[in-house]
Write a structure and sequence with these properties.
Blueprint (H helix, E strand, L loop, with lengths): L3 E6 L3 H11 L5 E7 L2 H11 L3 E5 L7 H11 L4 E6 L4 H9 L4 E4 L4 H12 L4 E2 L1 H16 L11 H11 L4 H8 L3 H15 L4 H10 L8
Parallel strand pairs: 1-2, 1-3, 3-4, 4-5, 5-6
Helix pairs in contact: 2-3, 7-9, 7-10, 8-9
Protein backbone atom coordinates (compact mmCIF):
# COMPACT_ATOMS: atom_id res chain seq x y z
CA UNK A 1 0.00 0.00 0.00
CA UNK A 2 1.38 3.43 -0.95
CA UNK A 3 1.95 6.12 1.67
CA UNK A 4 -0.68 8.73 2.46
CA UNK A 5 0.61 11.94 0.85
CA UNK A 6 0.09 14.95 3.13
CA UNK A 7 0.28 18.70 2.50
CA UNK A 8 0.73 20.94 5.55
CA UNK A 9 -0.71 24.46 5.40
CA UNK A 10 0.01 26.76 8.35
CA UNK A 11 1.41 30.27 8.55
CA UNK A 12 3.56 29.37 11.57
CA UNK A 13 6.80 27.71 10.47
CA UNK A 14 7.43 26.08 13.83
CA UNK A 15 4.02 24.38 13.67
CA UNK A 16 4.68 23.05 10.17
CA UNK A 17 8.14 21.78 11.10
CA UNK A 18 6.87 20.10 14.25
CA UNK A 19 4.02 18.35 12.46
CA UNK A 20 6.27 17.31 9.59
CA UNK A 21 8.81 15.77 11.94
CA UNK A 22 6.13 13.73 13.71
CA UNK A 23 4.15 12.71 10.60
CA UNK A 24 7.21 11.59 8.65
CA UNK A 25 7.93 9.10 11.44
CA UNK A 26 4.52 7.46 11.00
CA UNK A 27 4.27 4.27 8.98
CA UNK A 28 2.42 4.89 5.73
CA UNK A 29 2.49 8.70 5.91
CA UNK A 30 4.61 11.17 3.97
CA UNK A 31 4.58 14.99 4.05
CA UNK A 32 5.06 16.03 0.42
CA UNK A 33 5.03 19.83 0.87
CA UNK A 34 4.38 22.76 3.20
CA UNK A 35 2.46 25.98 2.54
CA UNK A 36 2.67 29.16 4.60
CA UNK A 37 -0.64 30.59 3.36
CA UNK A 38 -3.89 29.53 1.72
CA UNK A 39 -2.99 30.66 -1.77
CA UNK A 40 0.20 28.59 -1.77
CA UNK A 41 -1.77 25.62 -0.41
CA UNK A 42 -4.20 25.82 -3.34
CA UNK A 43 -1.33 25.93 -5.84
CA UNK A 44 0.59 23.05 -4.25
CA UNK A 45 -2.53 20.90 -3.89
CA UNK A 46 -3.30 21.30 -7.61
CA UNK A 47 0.31 20.49 -8.52
CA UNK A 48 1.01 17.59 -6.15
CA UNK A 49 -2.49 16.09 -5.66
CA UNK A 50 -2.01 15.00 -2.03
CA UNK A 51 -4.36 12.57 -0.30
CA UNK A 52 -4.79 14.85 2.73
CA UNK A 53 -4.31 18.56 3.42
CA UNK A 54 -3.87 19.64 7.04
CA UNK A 55 -5.29 23.16 6.81
CA UNK A 56 -4.84 25.94 9.36
CA UNK A 57 -8.16 27.80 9.38
CA UNK A 58 -6.81 31.32 10.05
CA UNK A 59 -4.08 32.32 7.60
CA UNK A 60 -3.18 35.62 5.94
CA UNK A 61 -3.83 36.43 2.28
CA UNK A 62 -6.32 33.56 1.78
CA UNK A 63 -7.86 31.89 4.82
CA UNK A 64 -8.23 28.15 5.29
CA UNK A 65 -11.97 28.19 4.63
CA UNK A 66 -11.60 29.80 1.21
CA UNK A 67 -8.52 27.70 0.39
CA UNK A 68 -10.47 24.54 1.26
CA UNK A 69 -13.29 25.54 -1.06
CA UNK A 70 -10.86 26.16 -3.92
CA UNK A 71 -8.89 22.94 -3.40
CA UNK A 72 -12.01 20.76 -3.22
CA UNK A 73 -13.19 22.37 -6.46
CA UNK A 74 -9.88 21.68 -8.25
CA UNK A 75 -8.49 18.42 -6.84
CA UNK A 76 -10.43 15.16 -6.96
CA UNK A 77 -10.62 12.89 -3.91
CA UNK A 78 -8.53 15.17 -1.69
CA UNK A 79 -9.42 15.14 2.01
CA UNK A 80 -8.97 18.27 4.09
CA UNK A 81 -8.66 18.45 7.86
CA UNK A 82 -9.09 21.85 9.46
CA UNK A 83 -6.68 22.59 12.28
CA UNK A 84 -7.45 25.57 14.48
CA UNK A 85 -7.43 27.11 17.92
CA UNK A 86 -11.05 28.17 17.31
CA UNK A 87 -13.79 25.86 18.57
CA UNK A 88 -16.86 28.03 17.99
CA UNK A 89 -19.46 26.98 15.44
CA UNK A 90 -18.62 29.75 12.94
CA UNK A 91 -15.24 28.25 12.06
CA UNK A 92 -16.24 24.60 12.39
CA UNK A 93 -19.38 24.78 10.27
CA UNK A 94 -17.81 27.04 7.62
CA UNK A 95 -14.92 24.60 7.18
CA UNK A 96 -17.31 21.67 6.84
CA UNK A 97 -19.53 23.61 4.41
CA UNK A 98 -16.44 24.38 2.34
CA UNK A 99 -15.71 20.67 1.94
CA UNK A 100 -13.43 19.71 4.84
CA UNK A 101 -13.68 16.11 6.05
CA UNK A 102 -12.38 16.80 9.53
CA UNK A 103 -11.72 19.48 12.13
CA UNK A 104 -9.25 19.34 15.01
CA UNK A 105 -8.21 21.80 17.69
CA UNK A 106 -4.53 22.70 17.84
CA UNK A 107 -4.26 21.57 21.44
CA UNK A 108 -5.22 17.99 20.55
CA UNK A 109 -2.78 15.11 21.06
CA UNK A 110 -0.72 14.12 18.02
CA UNK A 111 -2.28 10.64 18.12
CA UNK A 112 -5.64 12.24 17.43
CA UNK A 113 -4.28 13.87 14.27
CA UNK A 114 -3.02 10.54 12.91
CA UNK A 115 -6.37 8.97 13.80
CA UNK A 116 -8.15 11.75 11.92
CA UNK A 117 -5.91 11.33 8.85
CA UNK A 118 -6.63 7.60 8.64
CA UNK A 119 -10.35 8.22 9.20
CA UNK A 120 -10.76 10.77 6.38
CA UNK A 121 -8.70 8.66 3.96
CA UNK A 122 -11.14 5.84 4.72
CA UNK A 123 -14.01 8.12 3.69
CA UNK A 124 -15.17 9.11 7.17
CA UNK A 125 -15.63 12.50 8.80
CA UNK A 126 -13.54 13.21 11.91
CA UNK A 127 -14.27 15.89 14.49
CA UNK A 128 -12.48 16.48 17.78
CA UNK A 129 -14.78 15.17 20.54
CA UNK A 130 -14.71 18.60 22.17
CA UNK A 131 -16.32 20.25 19.13
CA UNK A 132 -18.71 17.57 17.89
CA UNK A 133 -21.40 19.07 20.13
CA UNK A 134 -20.91 22.43 18.39
CA UNK A 135 -21.82 20.88 15.04
CA UNK A 136 -24.87 19.11 16.44
CA UNK A 137 -26.12 22.29 18.10
CA UNK A 138 -25.63 24.27 14.90
CA UNK A 139 -27.52 21.64 12.92
CA UNK A 140 -30.44 21.74 15.38
CA UNK A 141 -30.45 25.55 15.20
CA UNK A 142 -30.65 25.44 11.41
CA UNK A 143 -33.54 23.00 11.58
CA UNK A 144 -35.48 25.33 13.83
CA UNK A 145 -34.62 28.54 12.01
CA UNK A 146 -33.66 29.22 8.41
CA UNK A 147 -30.75 31.60 8.74
CA UNK A 148 -29.09 33.02 5.66
CA UNK A 149 -26.28 35.29 6.83
CA UNK A 150 -25.26 38.35 4.91
CA UNK A 151 -21.79 36.92 4.30
CA UNK A 152 -23.37 34.06 2.34
CA UNK A 153 -24.38 36.67 -0.23
CA UNK A 154 -20.73 37.31 -1.10
CA UNK A 155 -19.07 35.41 -3.93
CA UNK A 156 -15.81 33.54 -3.31
CA UNK A 157 -13.89 36.27 -5.12
CA UNK A 158 -15.55 38.99 -3.02
CA UNK A 159 -14.53 37.10 0.12
CA UNK A 160 -10.94 36.99 -1.15
CA UNK A 161 -10.98 40.74 -1.85
CA UNK A 162 -12.54 41.42 1.56
CA UNK A 163 -9.81 39.48 3.35
CA UNK A 164 -7.06 41.28 1.46
CA UNK A 165 -8.64 44.70 2.13
CA UNK A 166 -8.96 43.88 5.83
CA UNK A 167 -5.30 42.84 5.93
CA UNK A 168 -4.19 46.26 4.67
CA UNK A 169 -3.55 45.62 0.99
CA UNK A 170 -4.03 48.47 -1.48
CA UNK A 171 -6.23 48.08 -4.56
CA UNK A 172 -3.12 47.71 -6.72
CA UNK A 173 -1.64 45.06 -4.41
CA UNK A 174 -4.90 43.10 -4.48
CA UNK A 175 -4.97 43.25 -8.28
CA UNK A 176 -1.42 41.85 -8.43
CA UNK A 177 -2.12 39.07 -5.92
CA UNK A 178 -5.30 37.94 -7.67
CA UNK A 179 -4.01 38.52 -11.22
CA UNK A 180 -6.92 40.81 -12.10
CA UNK A 181 -7.17 44.47 -13.10
CA UNK A 182 -7.44 47.36 -10.66
CA UNK A 183 -10.81 48.16 -12.21
CA UNK A 184 -12.06 44.63 -11.47
CA UNK A 185 -10.92 44.92 -7.85
CA UNK A 186 -12.80 48.21 -7.54
CA UNK A 187 -15.92 46.56 -9.01
CA UNK A 188 -15.73 43.67 -6.51
CA UNK A 189 -15.20 46.14 -3.68
CA UNK A 190 -18.19 48.27 -4.71
CA UNK A 191 -20.50 45.25 -5.11
CA UNK A 192 -19.36 43.83 -1.77
CA UNK A 193 -19.95 47.11 0.04
CA UNK A 194 -23.42 47.41 -1.48
CA UNK A 195 -24.34 43.86 -0.44
CA UNK A 196 -23.12 44.39 3.13
CA UNK A 197 -24.19 48.04 3.41
CA UNK A 198 -20.69 48.83 4.71
CA UNK A 199 -18.71 51.66 3.13
CA UNK A 200 -15.48 52.16 5.09
CA UNK A 201 -12.33 50.04 5.30
CA UNK A 202 -12.45 50.15 9.11
CA UNK A 203 -15.96 48.70 9.19
CA UNK A 204 -15.07 46.13 6.51
CA UNK A 205 -12.12 45.05 8.63
CA UNK A 206 -14.30 44.66 11.73
CA UNK A 207 -16.81 42.67 9.68
CA UNK A 208 -14.12 40.38 8.23
CA UNK A 209 -12.80 39.59 11.73
CA UNK A 210 -16.31 39.05 13.12
CA UNK A 211 -17.16 36.60 10.31
CA UNK A 212 -13.88 34.68 10.57
CA UNK A 213 -12.72 35.78 7.11
CA UNK A 214 -9.51 37.08 8.65
CA UNK A 215 -8.08 37.12 12.15
CA UNK A 216 -6.17 39.49 14.38
CA UNK A 217 -3.86 36.53 15.10
CA UNK A 218 -2.70 35.96 11.49
Amino acid sequence: MSSIKILLADDHKITREGLRSLLDKQDGMEVVAEAKDGRTAVSLAAELVPNVVIMDVSMPDLNGIQATRQIVGKVQNVKIIGLSMHSDNLFVTEMLKSGASGYLLKDCAFEELTQAIRAVVAGKTYLSPSISGVVVNDYLHRLSKVDISDSDALTDREREVLQLIAEGNSTKQIALKLHISVKTVETHRRQMMNKLDIYTVAELTKYAILKGITSLET
